[in-house]
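Contributing: when you submit paired examples, paste them exactly as shown. First protein:
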Amino acid sequence: MPVAVLATFALLVFAGFYALDYFVTGGGEAGEGASALERYISFDPDKLTDAVSALAGIVAAVLGIVITVVSIVVQLSADRYTGVATMFLRDRINIGVMAYYVVACVCGVWLSMSLQDDFVPRAAVIAMMTMTTAGLVLMLPYFAYVFWFLEPGNIVARISRDTVRFASAGEQAPTLNAMEELSDITSNSISGKDKIIASRAIDALKDFTLEYLEMKARAGDPWFKIGKDIAENPDFVAMDRESLRDLEDRKTWVEWKVLRQYLGIYNEALAAMPDVNYLIAIDTRYIGEAAAQRGDTELIELVFRYMNSYLRATLNARNVRTAYNVLNQYRLLIEAMLRMGQADPALQGVEYMNYYGHVSYDMKLTFVTETVAYDLSALCQYAHEREAPVQQSILDQFLLLDQPLQVKSQEQGLLGVRKAQVKLAAYYLKAGDEKRARMIADDMKDEPSDRLEAIRGELERVQSKDFWEIIDRGRNFEFMPADQREQMPTFFGWLNLDDGS
C-alpha cells in the first residue's frame, strides 16, 4: 500500500505539471493532432541515449543505498541476536526486493546498448522507466519493513514459529538450534538490562513447549531417539550414557532441553534481573500443569526437578525475595496437580517443599521457612476442601516442618511455622474436622506457654487480608476470616492456655 500511494502521488504530480505545460504554458506545439500521451512517448533517439543511461545509473545508486543501510542495520542486530543475518537472508520479501533491484540494473544496462539511430525500443524504455519509478518509491517502505523485521519482538516471534515448524517436520538439529537462539536472545537481553525482550524470549520457549506437547503424541519413535546432532550439543555431551538413555525412554529430551535453558537463564538472572526468575518459575509451572493435564508423569517429575533446582540456586544465593516468589509458583503447581487428580505427584511436591523448608531453616533463612509453612498450610486446606486422597499425608508432612531451635535468630522462623499450623487448625475446626485439629494440638503440646501466647497475640492482631506492601500473593500470611479466628480459643484451650480474659 505505501508503495502504491507513493507511486500514484508522484505520477499525478508529474502528470499535472506535464499537462500544464502541454495545454497552458505552450511548452510545445499542441495542434499537430497528437495527444499529450502520444507526444510524450515519441522518443527522439538522439536525445534519449543519455536519459536511458541515467535510468540504469539511478537504479544502481538506489541499490547501493539500500545495501548500505540494510547491511549496517542487520549487522547491529546480528551483534545482539544470533542468527539474524541468516534469518534475514531467508526472508522472501528481502530476497525479492534485492532481486528486483538487480534485475532492474541488468535491464538498464542492456537497454542502454539497444538504442540505434533509426530504432527506439519504446516498450523496453517505458518498462525501464516503470522499474526505476518503482525502485525509487519502494526504497522508503522497504526501510520501514527492514526496521520492523529486525524489531526484537518480531525476531523472537519468528524464531518461535520456526521452532514449532522444525519440530513438526521432525528436524531435531534445527529445533535444537532455534531453542538455543531464543536462549541467546534472553542472555543478551539480561546483559543489556532489556527485561521486555528477555521476557518475550522466555515466554516463546514456554509457548513452543506447550505447542510441542500437543503434537508429541503424534511423533514417531525416531523423533525421541537422541541422534548425533543432539548428543554432541553442549547441554547433552556431558551427560553419561545412562542418562541419555533415560531421556530416550522417557521421551523428554525436548522438554529437558527447554528447562535446561531455563535453568541457565535463571542462574544468570538471579542477581541481575530477578523479575526474569519469577517469569521462569511461572512458565515452568505452566509446563507442569500441561503435563498434569495430559497425565505425562515423566514430564511432571522433570518439572519438579527443575523447580527444585531453582530453589536450590536461590537459597545458595541467599535471595529471600526470589525464593518467596518461586515458592508461590511451586504451591500453585501442586494445587493444579491436586485439581487434576495427580495426587501422588502432588504429595511428592509437598515433600520437596518440606525439604527446602528444612534447608532454609538450617541456613538461617527463616522467612523462607515461614513462607514454606504458610504454603503447606494452604495446601493442606486446599486438599481438605477437594477431599484429596493424600490430604492426611500432606498434613503429616506439614507437621514435620517445625524443628527445635538451634540459635536464637531462628525463633521467628519457628514462630512462623507454628502460626501457620494454628491457622490450619482453626480452619479444620471451622470445617468440623476436629480430629485433624487435635493432631496439630498434640504436635504443639510441648510448646512453652510464652511462645503460645506470642503466637495467639500475633494472629489476633491481624485484621486485614491485604498485606501493607505490593506483593504477588496479595494476601497477608496471618490473616484469617472472622469465623475461622473464632476457633482459636477452642484450640488454645486444648493446650491449657486461657483466653486472657
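Second protein:
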Amino acid sequence: MSLCNLFKPSLRDRAKAVGLELDGADYEFGEIDRRSNRLANFLLEEGLESGDRVAAYLKNSLEMIVAYLATVKAGLIFTPVNVLYRSPEIEHILSDAAPRVLFAQSESIEALNSLVARRPDVRLVNLEDLDALTEGQSEGPPHPVLTRDTAAALVYTSGTTGRPKGAMLTHGNFTANALNLADAWRMTSEDRLLLALPLFHVHGLGNGLHTWLALGFRMRLLERFRKETVFDELIDFRPTVFFGVPTMYERLLEAPRDKARRIGERMRLFVSGSAPLPAATLEKFRDLYGHVILERYGMSETLMNTSNPYDGERRPGSVGLPLPGVSIRLADPSTGVEVGEGETGELLLRGPNVFSGYWRRPDATKEAFTTDGYFRSGDLGVRSPDGYYTLQGRGKELIICGGFNVYPREVEEFLLAQPGVAEAAVLGEPDRIKGEVAAAYVVPRGSHSLDAEHIGAACREGLASFKVPRRFVFLEKLPRNALGKVQKHLLKQVAAQQETNLGE
C-alpha cells in the first residue's frame, strides 16, 4: 500500500470534516488535499521526476504539511531539515541529498540564499504564499506509479556520533508503522491529538502526522512545545492523545494539581519516546495526572519497533514488547552470537518498518545489516522472561571498566533516583589502570545543592564498585537535540564552556 491509498479515506471521504487546527484557524481535510494536489502538480510541471528529492526547512505549519503531502503524492522523496540546524549542517544535507527544490518560509529565505547560491542545481522556494505559488494548477491528484518499495522520505539521523546519514524510508515502511500504531494504541477517527513535536523528525512525522492522516481524527498542531502555554492548550483542546518526549513530560509535572486533573479526565493516552523515560518521571506523572505514560522504542531507520501494551502492564523503564511483524534478536555486539534472557545484547531488528538503506552509502548499508537481513540497531538491551525489552544505552557508549561491562543507562537511572538530581548523563573516560571508568554529568534539581562527596557515597552504597563514577561534573543543563535526546559528545565541551564562564 502507498501512503496515498492510506490517506485517501481521510482526505477524500472525510473532505468536509475539520481535520486540523493551527494558529486559531480550522482546515478541512478536503482543503488540505486540494492545496497539496496543486503543489504536487506545480513540482511536476517544474520538471521534477520520480525519485527526485524535495528538501523542507520548515517549522510546524500548514506549509509543512502541504509540502510533505505534495511531495509523496508526486512520487518524490521528502527530505526534512531540522530548523535548528545552521549553515554547515544544512550544507551537508544539501550536498548529500542533492535536492532539486528547497522549501522554506520568509524568515529563513535570507539565511538560506547564500547556501543555495553555491548550489545552482537547488531552487529555493518560499512557501509563505502557497496559494499564489500554485495559482492555476490542477486540484486533481497526480498519478505517479507508487508501490510499498517507493522511497517516500530521506530522513537524516541526528548525527550525535558523526556526520548525519540519510535513511531511506519507503511508502511501505510508513504505512506499516501507522497501521501498527493505530491498532496497538486503539486509535480511531474519534480521537483528538495535540501535537507539539517537530514534523521534521520521524516521531512527529511518522507517528503524529501519519496516524492523523490515516485515521482522520482532529489534530491541533503547535509550532513547538511551550511550557508557558501548553497547559491551557491541553485544557482548551481537550485531546484524547498526546505524543511527547521525556523533557516534555518533565515540564508537564509542573502543572498545578487541579489543571493536571482536568487534563487527565479527558485524556485517553500519553505516549513517550525518542529518549529514555526515567522511571521516577513515570511514577510522578501517574500520581499527578492519573495516567501511566506508555513508553515505546523506535529509530529514524526503523520507525517503531516495540511498545508497552495499551491493555496490560506498562512497565517502568521498559520499552515493552515487539509490535506485530517486528522480529527482534539479541546478540553479543562483538561476536554476533545470540544471547539469552536476562543477558545484555545488541538489538537486531527486522520487519516491514525497517528502512531500505542509507542514501548513497552502500558501505554503511552493508555494515548495518546482518547476512540474514537484520538491522544492527547499535542499541543494547535485555529481554525479560515474559518478553519485555529494557534498553541499556548505545553499544558505542558501553564502558568496560577493568573487564566489567558498565551500562550508562543503569547508572543514570540510579542517579536520577537520588534526591536533588534533575538530570544525569554517564559516559566513559580513559583510565590507565582500568581501561575506562565512568564519569557522571549531573544537573541539580531547583535550588538543591549537590556535591561529589555525598552523591559519590550514595553510588558506592547502591552500585557495584566498578559502576561508580570516578568523576562528577555539575552542569546547569545537559546538551540535547530538538527531540530531547542527550548529545553526549558535547558534554565535555559544555562543561568546559561553563567553567570558562565562571572564571570570567
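If you have annotations for the second protein, write them as plain sentences, like these:
The chain has a mean pLDDT of 93.
The longest strand covers residues 421-431.
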